[in-house]
């Protein structure tokens, strides 16, 4: 039985924005006898709330950013289709008793769920902060390119009346390559290293989406949060080496707090002004030595003993380049659009994450 089945047609009176129109249909999601309503008739009670309700399909929903995004969407009473390769993993992360309003779909069911959505967020991709063997490097690229291509193909092959109108697709600031001197904005050219190559191919698939679909590509920086991402890798190193600069400490560290990247994605879903490439970084990048000073202070640990390159590479292998190379990236488009960063300064972001203040 297909997970999501269109069973009837209703006309929605309004849409969340001029570029985020609700499909003119009623979608019922079914799985092994469990029926979850993906939309409701606008004439029902609570019409105003339903008029603003999004139905969002999310790849990478079980990841560091995806988990928080799902929580954010549900908090505002939107519905979420979790597009996953492992139903058991998704069910563990999103237990039904705690996460009402989501549908979990494995790949054969993605088409029906995407066509039952107003918008798609594509966050899928193998983590890059790990040891890079040739096999891992291949998977890092293919995990991004393949899933993005699949999502875009489903959208493009959908009829107009069931095609989502917004695609928010992740990329990374690795697109720009590394530099200690250059400043990168959205219009800056791509770099020449491995991560830049990955990002170019990744974005290239997203750019093939139907021209009637509003596309937002967010090049995400180093995401700081309590339960994953860069800090989960850096804190043990600080504990082991008593804290200190990683490598030379002169590298630029373009970061963003988890709450801010989730809010940026949320805004991109609902605000028709958000189109094209947007850098997902805080407005105040810092040198890595400064970042480490603030991290040491927040942890109550000294930050004077440098962690040498070879020690970091012993832990992360070639993946250490994510931290050791660095680039100064500014969120010019987000600022032009008036996006407000809750955590514009790394000191405040780290204090909030580590001390809960």
UniProtKB/TrEMBL annotation:
What is the name of this protein? Epimerase family protein SDR39U1-like, chloroplastic
Extract the CDD domains matched here.
SDR_a8
**InterPro entries registered for this protein in UniProt:** DUF1731, Epimerase_deHydtase, NAD(P)-bd_dom_sf, SDR39U1
Query: Could you tell me the superkingdom of the organism this chain comes from?
Result: Eukaryota
Its taxonomic path starts at: Eukaryota, Viridiplantae, Streptophyta, Embryophyta, Tracheophyta
Boundaries of each NAD-dependent epimerase/dehydratase domain copy? 57-273
Regions crossing the membrane: none
Describe the location of the DUF1731 domain by residue ranges. Answer: 307-353
Which species? Vitis vinifera
